[in-house]
User: Fold these one by one.
Assistant:
Number 1:
Amino acid sequence: EVQLVESGGGLVPPGGSLRLSCAASGFTSSSYWMHWVRQVPGKGLEWVSRTNRDGSSATYADSVRGRFTVSRDNAKNTMYLQMNSLRGEDTAIYYCAREYYGILAGHYSDIWGQGTLVTVSS
Amino acid sequence: DIQVTQSPSSLSASVGDRITITCRASQSINDYLNWYQHKPGKAPKLLIYAASMLQSGVPSRFSGRGYGTDFTLTITNPQPEDSATYYCQQSYSAEWAFGQGTKVEIK
């Protein structure tokens, strides 16, 4: 079964750090670009970050650039999100998603994890 | 950055109605526009990709159209299980973006 499973969420004080993991199974993650997306409770989906197949390149939303870093270990079929200098507004469910690309289909996220909750609070 | 603006923010409809949600991009994105359905406690689900292509397994009552900056998602004869929040997403630029979401209630 093709699936993504996030882990690593929890309670962290403002200014603290946390690392999330996204484990892929049922497919070779090194063949796909991957994303992080979050949802603040009661709010909409917010795109966070995107990394290429080998992890050598990444882009970030303005709200997290300079504080969050995405990486991946393709030998472990796992992607990570290192979150530093956390703020209350980073409290959210964090989802990882696979990006599919087709010449006529464009880019879209076809596989999503169930999410992991990060709570930033003292 | 390319932003996408969705409307309305919420709506209520009945079985047998026709629902239309609009999404407008801040600049042309060709057809790099996707639609997702999101229910509480669940992972988002892809409905439509490339503006008008129906994802495998998605009921044919869902349809999308548009090109450039203006796009629509239509649900024809919505069912109670279609109650959810719907998001458009642009994948034209290196930094993707979601619309604000439309909460749909089917009575």
Number 2:
Amino acid sequence: DQQVKQNSPSLSVQEGRISILNCDYTNSMFDYFLWYKKYPAEGPTFLISISSIKDKNEDGRFTVFLNKSAKHLSLHIVPSQPGDSAVYFCAVRFINTDKLIFGTGTRLQVFP
Amino acid sequence: DAGVIQSPRHEVTEMGQEVTLRCKPISGHDYLFWYRQTMMRGLELLIYFNNNVPIDDSGMPEDRFSAKMPNASFSTLKIQPSEPRDSAVYFCASSLTTSPGTDTQYFGPGTRLTVL
């Protein structure tokens, strides 16, 4: 059973607009939430993370929001750029472990 | 730094054959992870090691899968015998635990396995 769900397999956004990627989780035993980005023929690379004690974390154009009551995580990219086109995976970390559980990924395409 | 190195990058084999995937983690990293990526299930954690010791292998699908880490710079994932449903991209990742939230995992480029 999937503990981490990314219900949108793909998303298409115009350059300069906001991209919003969503992730839902089912377990409360997680202490960190992360986003990874993956280009074709490469391994995923870490993008941004947030602790369970926070509800927002920003890093340049990327902002992650955490809604613990709804068990919902989102990544906002603004403004979106063509180089952001990739597959985005959300991941959750079990409390006091190094074990990450990943979602199925959302393919983002940013067009001019 | 060369990053995480995986070999081979592509492997095509026939059902029933033994397959061995190899990984060299980033020097100094004390954690090593093996993942499998499929369209249906995304990235699944198979097993991970800390200081060469297996910590959690609950994600290993069957007894046909085994993983070893004989030293800090090398790990293998073996499938014997292989089946067509094992076809996937297999990733190795390593990390250095410093403090919570900062121990991001660094992934290798993956091995694309096709079992005919």
